[in-house]
């Protein structure tokens, strides 16, 4: 299976910055896209940002201009630079990756999540 490990979450003041990292490992032939999702209490999990192997990006309207997603294809790692953080950004962030495994099948994997807390 493909495993994802997130890091970089923590406590910051409003207006501060954090950088999340997600490293994929396991039987990976190629990764088509990686992204970050978040799920606040009582709400559905939603896309924050995603990036394809070709570099195309997609952002939620609520984070455009503040967050930047990037990836290192050689390391199968995706990053989320979060600037100008707001208390509303407080939640658990989950990494997702999809692509083709070394077994010749499609995969879609989730990380365990990393907590981001923004104080006023």
Helix vs. strand class: mainly beta
User: Strand portion, in percent?
Assistant: over 45%
Number of helix segments?
0
The whole-number mean of residue pLDDT values reads 95
Order of helices and strands: EEEEEEEEEEE
The low-confidence parts are: none
Instruction: State the helical fraction.
Output: under 10%
Rg, Å, rounded: 14 Å
Number of strands: 11
Question: How far is the first residue's CA from the last residue's CA?
Answer: 40 Å
Taken from the alpha-carbon principal axes, the silhouette is: elongated
Largest sheet, if any? 7 strands, mixed
Can you characterise this structure?
The protein has 120 residues and is mainly β. The protein is 0% helix and 62% strand. It contains no helices and 11 strands. It has strands spanning 2-7, 10-13, 18-26, 28-39, 46-52, 57-59, 67-72, 77-82, 91-101, 106-110, 114-119. The strands form 2 sheets. Strands 2, 4, 5, 6, 9, 10 and 11 form a 7-stranded mixed β-sheet that branches. A 4-stranded antiparallel β-sheet has the order 1-3-8-7, with no helix packed on it. A hairpin with a 6-residue loop joins strand 4 (28-39) and strand 5 (46-52). The termini are far apart. 31% of the residues are buried. The model has no long low-confidence stretch (mean pLDDT 95).
Structure described in brief:
The protein has strands at 2-7, 10-13, 18-26, 28-39, 46-52, 57-59, 67-72, 77-82, 91-101, 106-110, 114-119.
Which descriptors apply to this entry?
single chain; 120 residues; mainly beta; seven-stranded mixed beta sheet
